[in-house]
Structure formats: C-alpha cells, structure tokens
Write a structure and sequence with these properties.
single chain, alpha+beta, 4-stranded antiparallel sheet, globular
C-alpha cells in the first residue's frame, strides 16, 4: 500500500469493520420493549467496542429525534475524536447511518 505502514492499515481496517458492523448488527434481544435513549446508547457502545481492537469508544450520547424510534448519537473514541450517527430502531436491531469523519 502506498503511504500506509502495516499498523496504520490494520487500524484502518478495524475501524472500517466496526463501522460496517454497526449498520445492520442485530441488538442482542434487548430491544424487544420500547427503545429508550439509554438502551440505544448501550447497544451502539457495545457494537463499536466488540471489534478486534477491543475498547475503541469511550462514550456514546444519544438524544431522541421527532421521528418514531430515531436517535441522534455522538460517539467519543478513547482518543477523544467524535463520530456522529443517526440511529433508527428496526425490529430487534439498529440501523445506523454514520456521518463522514472530518479532518
């Protein structure tokens, strides 16, 4: 690869995997009842930290938006970078649309 060393490439692949899994990973049965902010935060945090790199996300904060079962979330990594997402509860899972990273 041009311009990327092996550790940087592995981190990039791990981040892409974690974000890709967040798109359609079913929540572990915890969303059978009416979803609330705290439950969605917990599920998004679990999805982001369940990849091969372990704990990459420090916190997730969500707020409900007007659409039914929709949340606006901000994930903060262990290195303090922020990632915005729109999360919709669909059945027993989460559908997550991540905003592009800036910088």
């Amino acid at each position: 690869m041009i311009g990327l060393n092996r550790p940087a490439m592995l981190k990039l692949v791990a981040l892409a995997s974690a974000l890709g899994l967040g798109i359609a990973v079913p929540a572990t049965g915890a969303l059978h009842s009416k979803p609330n902010r705290a439950l969605v935060e917990q599920q998004v945090l679990q999805q982001l930290n369940s990849g091969p790199d372990g704990r990459i996300t420090r916190t997730v904060h969500c707020s409900a938006i007007k659409r039914h079962f929709s949340f606006s979330c901000v994930a903060v990594s262990t290195r303090s970078s922020r990632l915005d997402a729109q999360v919709v509860v669909v059945g027993d899972g989460l559908r997550t649309a991540w905003s592009p990273l800036q910088g």
